[in-house]
Amino acid sequence: MRSNHEIDYHIHGEEMQFVEVELDPNETAIAESGSFMMMDDGIQMATIFGDGSKQNTGGILGKLVSAGKRILTGESLFMTAFTNASVGKKKVSFASPYPGKIIPLDLLQLGGRIICQKDAFLCAAKGVSVGIALQRRLGTGIFGGEGFIMQKLEGDGMAFVHAGGHVFARELKAGETLKLDTGCVVAYTQTIDFDIQFVGGIRNTIFGGEGLFFATLRGPGTVWIQTLPISRLASRIMQYGTATRKEEGGILGGLGNVLDGDGWR
Predict the structure, then answer these.
(1) Which CATH code of 3.60.160.10, 3.40.50.300, 3.40.1740.10, 3.20.20.70 fits the domain covering 8-256?
(2) Segments making up each domain of the chain, as ranges
(3) Which one, 25, 156, 170, 175, has least CB within 10 Å?
(4) Using an 8 Å Cβ cutoff, are 164 and 100 in contact?
(5) In the chain, which residue ranges form alpha helices assigned H by DSSP?
(6) What whole-number distance in Å separates Cα of residue 18 and Cα of residue 10?
(7) Can you give the pTM of this predicted structure?
């Protein structure tokens, strides 16, 4: 039985998706600031500290600490709660911030905890806790590209995360290892062992153009992968927005990306 609010949903669109959440009377969805798209009459909006989960019930100090952790993941102190205050079913919709896919995650079916990139969370049923997950290994924290601080979604309700390009899930068996560009890791279950590995080799380092490190994930568990990290998209836009690009395709282009390759963000 779920302790979080039980919501129904439907995901619309292809490249620029939005998720439509259906709320019964008194049901609530929480969302990041800026993700709101539209809602039916009868839904009330409220700005709250943190995520409004039961873990935030330790008085004002507990709420401030919980909300303050969100700063470490680059998010706002506040979230927005959308509550159906009417007598019938009402709908509220949240849009993806850039081209990609919205991933529905049923935390009840996924062991109650998901680790995801710090900017991946979009919205969730009330009761889902949105916290921080510190990488245990020093190498992961320093060289992980996406930082050693990631988001942690806990509870037994529905949560939705967003990622760029095409997104797919990969099931890893016990002991099975997958190596990825660090920016392509969207989320993974708590049973996955996550680490960062040095590419190695002077030729790979100087001329590979893929960055110095990649992520290694060892099963068992599920990992969600994106084909277009937003950092890669942003770097390409900045790169081709430059008026003069004499180094493009030359050796200087490769040398210039030794330390800031697409794989190391």
Answers:
(1) 3.60.160.10
(2) 8-256
(3) 175
(4) yes
(5) 59-72, 138-143, 202-207, 230-240, 251-256
(6) 9
(7) 0.78
